[in-house]
Amino acid sequence: MEKRKLLILVLIIGLVSAACGQIKQTQASTFTDKQAMALVKEAFQTQVSLSEKPQPMEDIEKQLHASFTEELTNSFIEDNVVQADGGYMTFGSDFAKHYIPFFSYDKSTNVQYENGKWYIWEERSGEEEGPVSTEPGVEAVVLAKEKGDWKISSITNEIPDKLR
After folding, report:
1. Which three-class secondary structure string do you get for 65-106?
2. Which residues belong to the signal peptide in this entry (predicted)?
3. Which pLDDT band holds residue 92 (cuts at 50, 70, 90)?
4. How do 81-84 and 149-156 pair as beta strands?
5. What is the Cα–Cα distance from 90 to 50, expressed in whole angstroms?
6. Distance (Å, rounded) from C-alpha 146 to C-alpha 154?
7. Which of the following CATH numbers is that of domain 33-163: 2.60.40, 1.20.272, 3.10.450, 3.30.420?
8. What is the pLDDT of residue 26?
9. What does the pLDDT read at residue 93?
């Protein structure tokens, strides 16, 4: 009788452990391409909103940390945030560093997971009309995990060859 109870206990512990491992694996793989694109869109809006009115530096840092890695947040602030009217803000520029590109967020926007990172990019022909012109090539945003959360880690003109 004791052996039977012990066997049942071991079986229950094994099943619970397996289920917990499966839950962790599922949680790690549930971030989707749609979520990656939504994160980039939201981060872009955050960057744009920083030019609307002066605010405390702590508020700017908090807003940026929600979508950007600590390193990219610090670089963005250093290169773009200035003191103005009793607070801090950004001033718009077509050539400011660390800004998310003007993506169309349609079929021309590519999203793919590769080597532990998400890449969101568009190919530019350099022949675009309108208020924003670009150089030919790739404009990309890279997402990486920081402390368990997906965040924008870089804005670049390069993607892995596998993605082309």
Report:
1. HCCECHHHHHHHHHHHEEEECCEEEECCCCCCCCCCCCCCCC
2. 1-21
3. confident
4. unpaired
5. 6
6. 13
7. 3.10.450
8. 36
9. 73
